[in-house]
Design goal:
By secondary structure, the protein is an alpha/beta fold. It is about 40% helix and about 20% strand. The strands form two sheets. A six-stranded parallel β-sheet has the order 1-4-3-2-5-6, sandwiched between helices. It starts with a strand and ends with a strand. Bound molecules: adenosine monophosphate (AMP). The site of adenosine monophosphate has 17 residues, from helix 2 and strand 5.
Length: about 280
């Protein structure tokens, strides 16, 4: 496994691979790797000749007062896990490498970036789009792998890739969960034992919402069921519990797919989770 820290080094390494006709799969992450990240690497490993992993805690996608400074960073452990998972090239740029002080361009995304995560975290998706557009240009990957865990990010990135004529195919991989249902997240590291237990209420609320939809209930009924379950606990502070169309993030149409999405603060961690279901309505 090779590591590089500059765009120039990355491009030099990738030029060799591309001229040998090898396909390139790219997995962008912020590090603190867990089995969710490793599942994306595994998918890239299956599909592509060369797997590139980036580890970059992107300051542009954190708002003021969010956890940019506290975000878990452990480069040595990440490199070990990446190597074991079969990554060929790890790209570890510094903030200055990605964003020189004279940077003048930000990718601005409208529409679905303004609801749910976008409403709670103003500017978040502009930060995501700016870094993802840059990383996709730096790697010129054939495929890039994203987790359904960040469902709104997936919708935003797919739309951006289409709007900006980015050639890379966006591949979406399923959410990896702990046996008790908690979706894996680097932010789970912030939780103590009690909070860790409380955090399972996110996935349980999604199950409760899914039950409502499957029994013919409305999106509003599902939202109420999810909010009830999450609002029930003193140690969980509900941000939103929503039932939306998975592509537009607006009210789901009758008979269409429904994305149940929740966000809540559990102790020091702001956690998100979601569940995609086909609504069966009569
Ligand atoms: P992050 O390092 O949190 O920015 O995540 C990097 C990528 O891993 C994103 O595409 C996430 O959606 C994905 N990811 C994070 N957690 C999970 C999970 N539990 N299951 C599947 N993918 C995940």
């Amino acid at each position: 496994m090779k590591t590089c820290r500059t765009e120039h080094e990355l491009r030099t390494l990738l030029r060799v691979e591309r001229s040998a006709g090898r396909s390139i799969g790219f997995v962008p992450t912020m590090g603190a790797l867990h089995d969710g990240h490793l599942s994306l690497i595994g998918a890239a490993r299956q599909d592509c000749d060369v797997v590139v992993l980036s580890i970059f805690v992107n300051p542009l996608q954190f708002g003021p007062g969010e956890d940019f400074g506290a975000y878990p960073r452990d480069e040595e452990r990440d490199l070990r896990l990446a190597d074991q998972a079969g990554v060929d090239i790890v790209f570890l740029p510094s903030v200055e490498e990605m964003y020189p002080s004279d940077r003048a361009t930000t990718v601005s995304f409208s529409g679905i970036s303004e609801v749910l995560e976008g409403a709670s975290r103003p500017g978040h998706f502009d930060g995501v789009c700016t870094v993802v557009a840059k990383l996709l240009n730096q790697t010129s990957a054939d495929y890039a792998y994203f987790g359904q865990k960040d469902a709104q990010q997936v919708a935003v990135v797919k739309r951006m890739a289409q709007d900006l004529s980015i050639q890379t195919d966006i591949v979406v991989c399923p959410i990896v969960r702990e046996p008790d249902g908690l979706a894996l997240s680097s932010r789970n590291a912030y939780l103590d034992a009690g909070q860790r237990k409380a955090a399972t209420s996110l996935s349980r609320s999604l199950q409760a919402g899914a039950e409502v939809i499957r029994n013919g209930g409305s999106p509003e009924d599902a939202e109420a069921a999810m909010a009830l379950l999450l609002g029930d606990r003193a140690d969980v502070e509900l941000d939103y519990a929503a039932a939306v169309d998975p592509s537009t993030f607006s009210k789901p149409g009758p008979g269409g797919s429904v994305l149940l999405a929740v966000a809540a603060r559990v102790g020091p961690a702001r956690l998100i989770d979601n569940l995609l279901i086909e609504a069966k309505r009569t």
